[in-house]
Amino acid sequence: xxxxxxxxxxxxxxxxxxxxxxxxxxxxxxxxxxxxxxxxxxxxxxxxxxxxxxxxxxxxxxxxxxxxxxxxxxxxxxxxxxxxxxxxxxxxxxxxxxxxxxxxxxxxxxxxxxxxxxxxxxxxxxxxxxxxxxxxxxxxxxxxxxxxxxxxxxxxxxxxxxxxxxxxxxxxxxxxxxxxxxxxxxxxxxxxxxxxxxxxxxxxxxxxxxxxxxxxxxxxxxxxxxxxxxxxxxxxxxxxxxxxxxxxxxxxx
Length: 253
Description:
mainly alpha
C-alpha cells in the first residue's frame, strides 16, 4: 500500500499525500514495536531487518511539513484511542496516580504494560479524524466554516467531531483548551486531548496523559470527586507539564 501511494500521491493531490504519510508513519511505528519485541520466533527476528530496509526506502523528503505533522498526530491519536479502548488500567496504578495528583507533588512514572490488554471493545477500522484531516488538507476554509455549524458539519463529515478542527489545524493550545472545558467525556475526546497535550509538553514522555491516557481517565473521577466543583483537576494536571514542571501546590490537601 505504501509503495503504491509513494508513486501516486505526487499527482493525486494532498489527500493522497496524507494517506501516504500516515501509512509510512504507521510502518515505522510498527517496525519499532517489532524491534523491541521479545516474542518473535527466529524466523520473525530475521525478517525484521529486511522489513526495515524496505520501509527505509520509502521516500518522505518531498512531503509537506503540515502533512507530516498531521500524519504523526493521526498515528498518535490512533495509539491513544487503542489504549483507551483496549488497556485495562491496573487498580494499584490508578490509586497511585490519584494520590500523586491530589498531593500536587511529582507524578510517578507509569510504564505502559502490554499484559493488560482486553478485547471487550473491538477497535474500529474507520477513522472520522482521518477523514476530517483529509478534508482539511484539501480545503481548510470549508472545514472552518462547517465547524461553526454543527448540523452542516455532521452532514459533511459524518461521525467526525467539530471540536477536532483545532487539532487538525495544528492549533494545539485551542484544541487542549476546548477539550479541557468539556472534561473529555468520551474516548475520542480523551485521545484528542492526549495528542494536543503531547504536542504542548516540554517532555511528553513524562506526562501520563500523553503516554497513558487510559490511566488518567480512570483516576480522574476519583480526583474530581475529592476536589469538588471549584477547580478543574484535569486542567491543573495538564498545566504541570505544559509549564515545564511536574509539581504543583494548587491541589495539596
